[in-house]
Design a protein that fits this description.
This protein is an alpha/beta fold. It has helices spanning about 80-85, 105-115, 130-140, 155-165, 190-205, 225-230, 275-280, 330-345, 370-380, 405-415, 445-450; strands at about 5-10, 15, 35-40, 95-100, 120-125, 145-150, 165-170, 210-215, 235-240, 245-255, 260-265, 270-275, 290-300, 300-315, 320-325, 350-355, 390, 395, 400, 420-425, 435-440. It has three domains: about 1-40; about 75-275, 3-Layer(aba) Sandwich (Rossmann fold), CATH 3.40.50.300; about 280-450, 2-Layer Sandwich (Ribosomal Protein S5, domain 2). The protein is globular, with a radius of gyration of 26 Å. It binds thymidine-5'-diphosphate and magnesium ion (MG). Thymidine-5'-diphosphate binds near residues 104, 105, 106, 138 and 269.
Length: about 450
């Protein structure tokens, strides 16, 4: 019989303690240490299988390791492939996190239905009927996907052994539990144990496993930070639930860059890949309205044209309000201070509201110039020609600063039919004969001259 014991875990960082204490000495968080019953497994649960898929580990000279033989599994989803760096690597563990209701289950179910391989979708959250109903909406004709509603890892592995799937999807890691650990599902020790068993299974059979993970209210994946260290890839599914756009990012990727980004649109029949995001994010208006400006931003490696809207009005109450959606409020305050000081605008008695359309959040500093332009435009009530766009950072002394990969932004703007793009004079641009006019500016005053 294994020895039963209890251990104290920090629910924030997963550090183990022998006794209770008020503050975690590792992450310095208060009141996060909880007692959990732990029964140490005598042996891990995924028994090394006798299947021919088993890989043996022999030391190899680094030059002899053949990387070309490691084909990636095509997910038949262009956006997911791009974020993963070209497909799923056999034997890898991928964790997909995101807010409740954002579409994690929909995305992975849709992917598993579209795969030509034998797929096992394990759900601890929904019944087989519920999943079938959803599957009918997103992809009604598939016969390669098996659905299992089970939460005990021992039973899951038993099914895997008989089914021998090519890919396993777990929805979600927080619902799994292993018999070897006494504490309840979702606790630190359960998550750690279940993930360890799954890693062992994935590495030994070269079967990729995709896990869905819940996130806490501050946006981190629920469970210990160590979970993110254990898996190969951490993907984050983001977006505003009131909008249709969803963004898939890689926070960690052992097999590719974390700069790539996937964009989806949530529709009645599941998630649709968006391959031309710029065209969708800019509303095609006939009239020119004041307060609108278009920024040529980069999300990871992808150029995105994004519309910024500002409303500047006289403050009704003593303290003016500043509110920003999709943009850092501190950065907005900074830009307002620069406008006040460098361009002589009296914004101190004005309410300023800023909105990035499409429900996306931008942290590319190149959006600064468009933010400033939209505020100026609303304040002066003059509209910016709708074929103008902007790509530059604004510095504290009102200087227009260069941004990275400016040529890529210019080409995207040109492709979408913009007539003029405002960029910093200090950007090195070797593009020639562009149809788009490249307007170089060096300080805030230059922009004011053009717009007002
Ligand atoms: P879900 O995948 O269950 O979210 P998660 O697993 O991240 O909690 O789905 C979230 C929402 O997506 C749900 O509220 C309804 C919506 N949805 C659609 O709009 N269209 C669809 O085809 C599907 C399947 C879901
Ligand atoms: Mg779900």
């Amino acid at each position: 019989m294994a020895k039963v014991k209890t251990t104290f875990f920090c629910q924030n960082c997963g550090t183990q303690f022998a006794k209770w204490q008020g503050q975690c000495t590792a992450c310095k968080d208060w009141n996060t240490i909880v007692e959990e019953l732990v029964q140490k497994p005598e042996k891990s649960d995924w028994k090394t299988p006798t299947s021919p898929k088993k890989r043996s580990a022999v030391p190899l000279l680094i030059n002899q390791i053949d990387t070309s033989k490691e084909p990636r599994l095509n997910t038949f989803d262009g956006e997911l492939n791009r974020v993963l760096g070209g497909g799923i690597v056999p034997g890898s563990l991928t964790l997909l996190g995101g807010e409740p209701g954002i579409g994690k289950s929909t995305l992975l179910l849709q992917v598993s239905l579209g795969l030509p391989y034998k797929t096992l979708y394990v759900s601890g959250e929904e019944s087989q009927k519920q999943i079938k109903m959803r599957a009918e909406r997103v992809n009604p004709n598939n016969s390669n996907c098996y659905i299992l509603t089970e939460t005990k890892t021992q039973n899951i592995f038993k099914q895997i052994e008989t089914l021998e799937p090519d890919i396993v999807i777990i929805d979600s890691i927080q619902t799994l539990h292993s018999d070897y650990i006494e504490s309840s599902s979702g606790s630190i020790s359960q998550i750690k144990e279940c993930t360890t068993e799954l890693i062992k299974f994935a590495k030994e059979t070269a079967t990729p496993v995709l896990l869905i993970g819940h996130i806490t209210k501050d946006g981190h994946i629920a469970g210990p930070k160590i979970l993110e260290h254990m898996v190969d890839t951490v993907l984050q599914f983001e977006g505003d639930r009131n909008h249709v756009f969803r963004i898939l990012r890689a926070h960690k990727n052992r097999f590719g860059s974390t700069n790539e980004l996937g964009i989806y649109e949530m529709q009645g029949s599941g998630l649709r890949e968006v391959s031309n995001p710029s065209e969708i994010l800019i509303s095609k208006k006939d009239e020119e309205l004041s307060g609108n400006a278009i920024a040529a931003t980069l999300e990871g490696m992808r150029p995105l044209m994004i519309e910024v809207q500002a409303l500047v009005s006289t403050a009704v109450y003593g303290t003016p309000q500043r509110s920003a959606t999709g943009f850092n409020a501190k950065r907005l305050n900074m830009l307002l201070a620069v406008l006040e000081k460098r361009a002589g605008f009296r914004l101190g008695a004005k309410d300023v509201f800023l909105n990035i359309t499409g429900g996306i959040t931008v942290d590319d500093p190149a959006i600064d110039l468009a933010v400033v332009a939209s505020i100026l435009s609303s304040n002066e009530d003059v509209s910016i020609p709708k074929d103008y766009c902007f790509a530059a950072e604004v510095g504290l002394s009102g200087e227009i600063r260069p941004v990275q990969r400016v040529e890529q932004r210019i080409l995207e703007a040109e492709k979408l039919g913009f007539a003029t793009i405002f960029v910093s004079k200090y950007n090195k641009i070797s593009l020639q004969n562009t149809a788009i006019k490249i307007q170089l500016i060096s300080k805030m005053e230059d922009l004011v001259d053009f717009l007002v």
